[in-house]
Design a protein that fits this description.
Helices cover about 30% and strands about 20% of the residues. With about 650 residues, it is of the alpha+beta class. A hairpin with a 5-residue loop joins strand 1 and strand 2.
Amino acid sequence: MSFPKFSPLDESSRFSLVFYRDFIGDLDFGVRMRGKLWFLIWVSFLWGSCLGRFVVEKNSLKVTAPDSLRGIYECAIGNFGIPQYGGTMVGVVAYPKSNRKACKSFDEFDISFKSKPGWLPTFLLVDRGDCYFTTKAWNAQNAGAAAILVADNKVEPLITMDSPEEESGQVDYLQNISIPSALISRSHGDKLKEALENGDMVSVNLDWRESLPHPDDRVEYEFWTNSNDECGAKCDNQIEFVKDFKGAAQILEKKGYTQFAPHYITWFCPDAFILSKQCKSQCINHGRYCSPDPEQDFSKGYDGKDVVIQNLRQICFFKVVNESGKPWLWWDYVTDFAIRCPMKEKKYTAECAEEVIKSLAGIDLTKINKCIGNPDADEENPVLKDEQVVQIGKGSRGDVTILPTLVINNRQYRGKLDKGAVLKAICAGFQETTEPAVCLDEGMETNECLENNGGCWQDKASNITACKDTFRGRVCECPVVNGVKFVGDGYMHCEASGFGRCEINNGGCWKKTRDGQMYSACVDEGCKCPPGFKGDGTNTCEDVDECEENIACQCSGCSCKNTWGSYECSCAGDMLYIKEHDTCISKKSTTAVGWNFFWVVFLGLAVVAVGGYAVYKYRIRSYMDSEIRAIMAQYMPLDNQREVPNHVQHNNI
């Protein structure tokens, strides 16, 4: 008797069965040890009571031909392969005449879907049923398909196509699936098949640009993981991913582009089993926080509670380094712990973990141990309690049920846990034009501005363009150059505006130099032909012939000569032209008047000087006379001073 392989899961059974897929796979009761049977029975009670809400992550499938099917349809992103988050893929649909469920290699049918040079890529449409989704994708990829579309075989809401347990014979192909996959509804699949059978070419566009929110210039993401390394190839791949992704994650975090947090799933033991041997070996804090047995066998090796404690230690490590402003050190710790303290070498201990922590300078081990608390206490652990709260989905995000996985901007990542694929998904979470340089590397995305300038406005003379390359594609946006803002629609027109605009390409205005004389139509308000010219100021400014238009040299006897941008007036004979008054005057009379005026001024100044000197002398003499008289009066009476008689006052009594 064998335990049946899992068919694709619908939303009602997803949470209760995910544990089996991740940790036990296909059990053969005739071969497996008796301990695993008890493990399976215990798990069925434990996880069956934890049904949650699973959200299917979706992208768009846009049909561009034939006209009868033109439109945008939803499809579900598969949890394997590499979805092109932030990007699109264009191709034509093919529906095979044989092997329509793609459960066998197409080599057996001598069928190939490799695109010839100059042709669009092929998206293989296959039917659901009879084998794993991953088997279909692997066979499609080997046949040359660029993507696989799986048509559902029943009328139901879209589900997530998941990978089976990674058995030893399947590991290689599961990790090597690189084409994106999408599940489409039965009705949509039937329409595509009908169009193909009628001989129509079906052109489609798989679009992941809006599969992840991208609200601002920072991406917030969570990594739901596990310290267990005995869950087979899945754990090995997770450890390898952490090693590969560590460098990129730390750079993004140090420069403030991302805000990262690790999380760990725990479950609770049902009340009826709290005192059982199984709950005691798999749980801490009196059955409140549990993890499955690493070896899937209660009778040997490490227990689930060992995993819970190590997970708790990794969370507490993150909390301590995050409070110190160095959250990126978590990546160093988990990488070193996986290398130095593996279960397989019986080093998965608290002592080994503490040695790793001590090797990372500046980490307060006392704070970490205080955070861990007492695992034997019959009380809640605040850290693990918070982990169980954030595990439950809110809003558009469903419960976290798949290990390992990422939640990027509150949306769950789907696809292969691969450095390049995950980095693309994180890059898709940045608002356009705010992504870091790593997201614009050649290996990450295609620079659409390199071909025909992306269809945007461009001034080739000054090498200024409105095309801006972003991770999700180019945007046409008038630029800011050296502090000067260009305004316009970005597609057909951009022009400099504001202060300093004339310093850049003359503000897009007319400008010309002739015989060493330069004229420009650029002013702060816009483009305006300078005096002496007429035109629109942008493309043309033509010289105004002031002489022909009789707007210059209007005085009697004046003659006019037009120049580029101006004019010259002159007078006949010995006459002199005065431009301010537009008049001609005699040079001689001007000279005579000038000398007469000079003599008048000179004589006037001389008279003023003599008069002033006379007044000065008179005032000096008067002042000295008064001083001398005052001195002499102190010693003898002067002629003008008469004696004043003394008067006696008589009092009549």
